[in-house]
Amino acid sequence: MSTRVVVDPVTRIEGHLRVEAILDDHNVIGDAISSGTMWRGIEVILQGRDPRDAWAFCERICGVCTTVHALASVRAVENAVGITIPKNAEIIRNIMALTQYVQDHVIHFYHLHALDWVDIVSALKADPAATAGLAQKVSPSWPTSSPGYFSDIKNTIKKFVDSGQLGIFQNAYWGHPAYKLPPEANLMAVAHYLEALKWQKEVIKIHTIFGGKNPHPHYLVGGVACAINMQGDNAINMERLEYVRDLIKGAQQIVEGLYVPDLMAIASFYPEWTTYGGGIGNYMAYGDIPQNGINDPSHFRFPRGIILNKNLSEVLPVDLADANQIQEQVDHSWYKYPNGKKALHPWEGVTDPDYTGPQPPYAQLDEKATYSFVKAPRWKGHAMEVGPLARLLVGFASGRTDIKDVVVDALGKLKLTPAALFSTLGRTAARGLETKLAAGWLLEEYDRLIANLKAGDTVTADTKFWDPKTWPADCKGFGPEEAPRGALGHWIHIKDEKIANYQIVVPSTWNASPKDGQGQRGAYEAALIGTPMADPKRPVEILRTIHSFDPCLACATHVTSPDGETLAEVVVR
Ligand code: NFE
Ligand code: MG
């Protein structure tokens, strides 16, 4: 008899995700279903509005990737209307995007994912002096590593545990046999969890400087919403730019001094996780961080392309405007399409919710029927994984030396071959390695900005096409982006100066996708298959693989279902 393990909601993610894993007699996952249990409807809200306002609505899809939908939206409008943004605007957008990567990935590693590998309660058994020795070995450049420091952290944890009020740490699987770190490594990781929490609110000030606020900084169709005036103090000036530089330096320090070393140290204790969690083996990146405009992918820092069946010797092209390439299917989703249509390109896309699932609370979903508010996007009919691993693999396979160097260096240190990348740990490692790249690129983009300003160019927006009267009466555009969680696309159809249709296909829509019409699984579903579970009542293995994608269901489904939301329940049947 098979056992079905239901995790609903999956916590330490954004949004509402339910996972059902079906185990065989040996407690190995034989099949899995991923269900988005909320629906938003931003795409419907946008219809009939001014395209220049779309970014402000879209950006509020999510409080985690707090800037990415605004960027994809202004790019879509600019693509439709034919606007080229000034160089300063390109660079400032790049700095904001790279800042988002660094903050988002550090938060994911320490605050969302680490507790899948780190046992907080075990840290109470750690010897502070031995922890100091370990920390000085693992992260020698990090300033806080004395025995007294770790002793203080241990006392803090002890007070916390003794009080019986574990708060956000309450429902974890402490003491589970799948946790492998020695107590000292656990204590070190908890200390760095707290350091990263303090730091992340600093780095994001880069968004407040260029975008006025965070979360949800301001954007502008045609450029960026900030002005530069080196002679004044009412706009971005040298004092503000020096501050940005300091924040970038701080980011490099924590990424290279703490995040990457901690990642490598933790990874070395979990070699078996390079053999689980691979999944589909198809990877897609739209590419990003343009150096010569968004329409020239050959000059992106993250290249564009597709890898099929783990074949790193070939990178296939992807075209967001081709109606036969990217399509969303709804065979297993709670939506209806008109006229019996089964798959639609986003320019023709329809967002018409049609809940036909069971009345909540329910024990299990029926994977043969409809089971998710997430649609099933496909590239030429193939299911795709998107995200840091896809970006690094596409960069690696494209022969990009900067990307190859960080990957080869990390694999060498862990004594692994590239095949190890197709796994849960590979995905988690890829995120850390691209954060190292992003922190380095941040400084390079900053230097590019300063050089352009020194050359006398302070323009940050082109308003030639600001007035909708200058636009074609009927036009379509797409806005590609690499959001932290992967390939993000916004598609817009503008008619008579208003939004006729707007569709958003989000990274977590690709990864959390249910099955398509051909029965092909989405990336989460496929990745869970084949993983043995030590104790099905405490499904930490499911969390490891699902968290390795860094899910955001708020984005993926873009008003929560009004009834029956069960909170904090792990059901084992
Ligand atoms: Ni809400 Fe997002 C990112 C987008 S979803 S977090 O990154 O777009 O995958
Ligand atoms: Mg959508």
Keywords:
573 residues, alpha+beta, 4-stranded antiparallel beta sheet, 3-stranded antiparallel beta sheet, 16 helices, 14 strands, disordered C terminus, binds NI-FE active center, binds magnesium ion
Give the structure's gist in a few sentences.
The chain is α+β, with helices and mostly antiparallel strands and 573 residues long. The protein has helices at residues 42-45, 54-59, 68-81, 87-113, 128-138, 147-162, 183-203, 205-211, 238-268, 388-397, 401-414, 424-454, 507-511, 523-528, 540-548, 553-557, and strands spanning 3-8, 17-23, 29-36, 283-285, 288-290, 300-302, 305-307, 326-329, 343-344, 376-379, 474-483, 486-495, 498-505, 569-572. The N and C termini lie close together (11 Å).
Mean pLDDT: 94
Note the total helix count.
Answer: 16
Estimated share of beta-strand residues: 5-15%
Which ions and ligands are bound to the chains?
NI-FE active center, magnesium ion
Major β-sheet annotation? 4 strands, antiparallel
